[in-house]
Amino acid sequence: MKKTIIIPVLTFAALGLVACDVLDQAAQTVLTTPTNTKPSLTNDEVISGLKEALSVGIKNSVDLTSVTDGFWKNSEIKLPFPEDAIKVRQKAMDWGLDSQVEKFEVTLNRAAEEATKEALPIFGDAIKNMSISDGFSILNGGDGAATKFLKDNTTSKLVEAFAPKVEAAISKVKLTEYWNPIITKYNNAMTITGGEKLNPDLNKYVTERAISGLFIMVEKEENKIRKDPMARVSDLLQKVFGSVTGN
Asked: What's this model's pTM, rounded to 2 decimal places?
């Protein structure tokens, strides 16, 4: 009788030990399995994320640049005296027109700031119409990759759409009132000396520099979203850019 009782007891004890081993192994598997795996992304999510990142970047950039001193007090995008007329500036300073030159340079930037107010819908349309077949390569392309793609594919259309806005801005801030006395005096002097007369296209200059400045700011905003999780203001941005950075 005693042998009959001992055998089931030993068998039960052995099964208990095996069960404990299985539970320990399962626990170790849970503890050692990585939990920070990158979320899987569809191409639609990548494209939507890139467009959203650019939309956020553009809005922030326009908000920063379309205010008084948005260009003038920002050394990265400030419009200097037109490069192809730098001789005009030098002569004007020699003639004691310092204050006139400064007023012109300030107003040049005021034109860019004023024109930039109209940029948001123009850039927004460019993003909506953007077709990205290589979304993952842009996502993984590093700093400025999305901005570069946008710039390469929309700049000519932006210039065409932006130019009349700049012309209206130049008229509103009365830029030519500060420019005409400077360039007239310079060209009159060139008539006497036989030098080359200059009169750069201010509309073109402000248009190109304003768009260039905006792209600089957009790239900064894009890179912020790439690197700083706090700048990812939606779940989609968190998912898309978190898949690259792991955070």
From this structure: 0.77
Q: Are 173 and 114 in contact (CB under 8 A)?
A: yes
Question: Percent helix, strand, coil in the chain (nearest 5)?
Answer: 75, 0, 25
Give me the torsion for CA of 51, 206, 116, 172, rounded to 10°: -160
H helical segments located in 33-144 = 43-65, 86-94, 98-116, 119-128, 135-139
Phi, psi of 71 (to 5 degrees): -95, -45
pLDDT 10s digits, 139-183: 888 899 988 988 888 888 888 888 999 999 999 999 999 999 999
DSSP letters along 199-212, please? ---HHHHHHHHHHH
What is the rounded end-to-end Cα distance, in angstroms, of the chain?
66
Cα distance between residue 62 and residue 118, in whole Å:
9
List of long-range contacts for 133-142, beta carbons under 8 Å, 24+ apart: 135/43, 135/46, 135/47, 135/50, 136/41, 136/43, 136/46, 138/46, 138/50, 139/46, 139/49, 139/50, 139/240, 139/241, 139/243, 139/244, 140/244, 142/226
Whether the CB-CB separation of 163 and 73 falls below 8 Å is answered with: no
